[in-house]
Input
Amino acid sequence: MTDSPTTFTELMALERHGPDTWIGLSAEYSWGRIYGGQVVAQALWAAYQTVEPDFGVHSLHAYFIRGGVLDEPVRLEVDRLRNGRSFCTRAVVARQSGGAILHLSASFHVVEDAPEIQTARMPLAPDPEDVRPKPDDWPWIMERRPLDLIQVLAPPWAGSASPTHWPTIPDSTSADWRSAPTPSSSDGPQHPSRSAHRRRRRGPVHGSEPRPRDVVPPSALRADQWHLYHWDCHGLTGARGMTVGNLFASDGTHVATVAQEVLLRERTKPR
Output
């Protein structure tokens, strides 16, 4: 493992490095550090290697601890917290030489024969084929087609916007569909929180790597096909913005919910 990955399949090709330990590489990103959604996907894929095939992840929680560097492998250490008959739990720590960069916990569940009821509804949106992609908007890991912001009702002191976009991961295969939705879950949460910030018109607001993140992943999703992400900001407090997003398949099926806390700090001039 020496060259930087150039496809999503290569990104997910983790190398075993001892008991319940894997090594992954990062793609090259223009902003100079590892994209958080990539590390979440790699950590989840490492956890998947330790569960039986009939278990699928139904929820995960992740904390971004520090930014990862691009030119150093990521060490993924899996802890088998519990093996049950219908549920099992895993914890993963992603490390580089500077220390831990991510902590992830995931719960896996066998498919049970039970009623399936959907109450979430996909917002009206044009088909992805009718939306023009932004040039140079995102690296090769993901293609997205953002829609115009839809303004929603909000208190006059806040203001909010609900960004919606169609993402897809063209290179994902049947082997890594289970982890493929997680990279796109980091793209989008900052925008509604930044929109709601009271200083957004008076000065720049810096949005850093999103902090904790809860994901309820889909039981079945073709990540190489278009799916719709719709985000809302639920509030700002203590420099943190809380956003909740719903992920829909193109036929309107609700396949995942993402709640993510974004750290927002106002830029200040050095004294």
User: Anything to note?
Assistant: Confidence is low (pLDDT under 50) at residues 149-161, 191-210, 215-220. The longest strand covers residues 254-266. The radius of gyration is 19 Å. The first helix runs from residue 8 to 11.
